[in-house]
Amino acid sequence: MSEEDVAKWAKDGQNKELFMSPSCSSFEMLDPHDPVISRLATQLFKKTNDYLQGEMAAGQDHYNLLEEINRLAITKYADLKNLTINLSKTLNEYNEMYNSQIKPLLLQIDQIDAQVSQFEANAYRLDSYTKQLKARFKELEEK
To answer: Which single residue of 5, 54, 61, 130 could bond 1 by disulfide (Cβ 3.0 to 4.6 Å)?
Structure first.
């Protein structure tokens, strides 16, 4: 397209099926350009670059944060694992201590309790028998 055709097309707006993509511009290095457009284009590219750099930095920050969270989680779970191992060992020691030292003592306490209950029952029977003897003795004395 010549410059006249482009000017005519832009002026008239009659060729609606003819569309020029911005990527198909006719930029040439030696042609003089409007300095305002060049300045604006430079600003656009700088700001676009800054935006993209910021997006990449934000993505990197998110990645670093996730790495730190993962490290902390690994540390926390390692601590919890050590805690559960220590608790398991302690629990096993207490179970062994219960079975070897406390359980026999509890069995002895149960036996003593059974004997005390039997002595108590015998004491009640003896008390009852003594009351009967006392009553008979009073009867015999009165006669």
So the answer is: 5
